[in-house]
């Protein structure tokens, strides 16, 4: 049960997550407002995906509490939409685009009778239209491009009308045009429906104009704040415990010296930061 529309989308209090003896992070207090866009950054293994899994109810906290829309975290919560890390789907997969989207529908809410099936079909159609995937919704998913598959995954995550959208590197392996499309879809969703977004990424530049705050995790340490507050040489040097430099190059952030994949920010080519204003013309 939701505690009402005024409840924060996500509330973590004294949250810690450990696998056996290994604590990934501890003492995490975080309140995410409805409609807020939070980027979750950090090197490989810092616990970004585990944070999403905890919010999905798949991994328990080792300390503290976590609430979504006022209710304790649990599996199968229809208030949560999830875009998993992109994996290319098998060409032989006997699943059409619309079937994939339909997997995101909460069957209990609509029932199995004729009316339920019709209502279900209508919301699947709406979700497909929302991501502009009508022209390939009936094609087998394995025959679609990575960008088309990812748009359908966004539709699948949105079809249940979630309060919170958890995105695990949703732009990975997409070209620049599809990075714009997918981040625009997510951005528009939160503007129109006040859906809170947790967006795990190694590259902040494609979403920099959309981000309200950043949670940056490094080896159990973390900082939360606006990108301007967190993405500084001083803060990142403190988190990484080594000298890190954050450069501003033509509207992009280039991070040098972390020794991990986040340095790819500096070598990712001409990623512009105008996706907030980019319109999808398809
Ligand atoms: N079920 C599990 N049992 C034990 N250890 C796990 C489990 N799941 C993840 N880990 C470990 O916890 C650490 C954090 O993993 P996680 O996937 O959350 O990191 P991440 O920040 O998302 O990394 P990446 O950027 O590489 O995706 C890793 O060292 C991983 O091996």
Automatic annotation (TrEMBL):
InterPro entries: AAA+_ATPase, ABC_transporter-like_ATP-bd, ABC_transporter-like_CS, Metal_Ion_Import_ABC, P-loop_NTPase. PANTHER family: IRON TRANSPORT SYSTEM ATP-BINDING PROTEIN HI_0361-RELATED (PTHR42734:SF5), METAL TRANSPORT SYSTEM ATP-BINDING PROTEIN TM_0124-RELATED (PTHR42734). Residues 10-244 form the ABC transporter domain. Keywords: ATP-binding, Nucleotide-binding, Transport. Gene3D superfamilies: P-loop containing nucleotide triphosphate hydrolases. Coiled coil: none annotated. Belongs to the ABC transporter superfamily. This is Metal ABC transporter ATP-binding protein. The keyword ATP-binding applies. One of its GO terms (molecular function) is ATP binding.
């Amino acid at each position: 049960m939701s505690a009402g529309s005024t409840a924060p989308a996500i509330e973590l209090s004294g949250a810690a997550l450990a696998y056996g003896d290994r604590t990934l992070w501890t003492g995490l207090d975080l309140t995410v407002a409805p409609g807020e866009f939070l980027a979750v950054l950090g090197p490989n293994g810092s616990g970004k995906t585990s944070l999403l899994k905890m919010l999905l109810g798949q991994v328990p906290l080792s300390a503290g509490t976590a609430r979504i829309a006022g209710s304790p975290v649990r599996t199968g919560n229809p208030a949560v939409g999830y875009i998993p890390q992109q994996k290319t789907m098998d060409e032989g997969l006997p699943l059409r685009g619309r079937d994939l989207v339909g997997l995101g529908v909460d069957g209990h809410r609509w029932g199995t009778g004729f009316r339920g099936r019709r209502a279900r079909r209508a919301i699947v159609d709406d979700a497909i239209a929302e991501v502009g995937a009508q022209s390939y919704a009936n094609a087998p998913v394995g025959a679609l491009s990575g960008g088309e598959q990812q748009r359908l995954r966004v539709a699948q995550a949105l079809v249940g009308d979630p309060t919170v959208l958890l995105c695990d590197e949703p732009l990975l392996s997409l070209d620049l045009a599809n990075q714009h499309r997918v981040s625009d879809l997510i951005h528009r969703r939160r503007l129109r429906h006040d859906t809170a977004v947790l967006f795990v990424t190694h590259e902040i530049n494609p979403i920099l104009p959309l981000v309200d705050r950043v949670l940056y995790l490094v080896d159990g340490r973390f900082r939360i704040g606006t990108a301007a507050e967190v993405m500084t040489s001083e803060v990142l040097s403190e988190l990484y415990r080594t000298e890190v430099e954050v450069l501003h190059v033509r509207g992009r952030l280039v991070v040098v010296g972390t020794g991990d994949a986040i340095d790819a920010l500096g070598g990712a080519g001409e990623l512009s930061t105008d996706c907030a204003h980019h319109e999808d013309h398809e």
